[in-house]
Structure formats: C-alpha cells, structure tokens
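Bumping with the actual sequence this time:
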Amino acid sequence: MVGACPNRRMNRPGEKAASRPASPLNFVVSPMKSISAIKSCYYSIARQLRAPAAHVPFATRPQHDGSPHVERAGDEFHYIVTERGLELKRRTTSDPDELLYWLVSDLTWAMASDYELAHRAPSQDSRRLLFKKHVELLAAVNSGWSQRQQVEYERILVEHPFRDH
C-alpha cells in the first residue's frame, strides 16, 4: 500500500472521483512523493489520534536531542535519529508508506507509553499493557500496521516472555 491519509481521497490513475470523503480514521490509499505530503498526512493522523503535541513534532533537520528527523535524497527517504552530533540510527526506504509507518509507529509508541504509565498494574509486566495499547493505536490508523507490530511483539515475547511479579 502506498501512503495513506485520512479524509483526503486521491484517485489512482484511471479511477473516477469518489462521491464522498473517507470517514475519520479510515486511511485511504493516496500517493505521497514529497516530504511535505508525508508531513501533512502525519499531522492529520496525529490529530485524529488526539496525540499530545509533545509527541507530534516532524523535523527535517537534526535536532541532536535523540529525536528523529526526515530527509530525502533522490527517490529515498531517510529516517534519522541523532544526539549530540552523533547519528544513532538511520532507516532508508523508497516507499513513502514505510516512512509514514515509522513515524506513526513512534508516535503511537509514545502515546502507549504514556497510557501504560498512567494505568500501570504493579503486579504485571509493564509490556502487557504497553504492547496491547500500541497495537490498538496502530489499528485505529491502519490494520496492516497493527498486524505487523503484533507479529513483531510475538517474536520478541518468544525470546523474552512476560514476567509478571
């Protein structure tokens, strides 16, 4: 799937115009080729999720504070994390949907972390609630993304099972 954006339907080549807009949190296929289009879509998703402003920044230059920023070079998008002048992580893709997934996954992870902290069950492994909420938030955006994350959590739990106290 190419990038998805709420409430904005862009037609595929040869497709007739849609007669009604997409409903909230119904993210429809739309081509995104520029960083500004991805940024717009990301902000739209963040609004629909009611994400706290502190979790929503979209940078296109290094902040050097451990937060990610997005760059484009030719047909490739780069998702880069820097801190104090050091590059800690770089992901590269030519798929704008993949970049949007990385952005939204980090956003929903931060939201899920806040939720877990506010609803912590002292006798439970904190990952139980954290993983569940993260997958739930991703599902509100894109079911494929939530399934992808669920598979990753299942893989993690095989090696590192929950340890309730």
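The tokens above came from a reply further down the thread. The longest strand covers residues 65-73.
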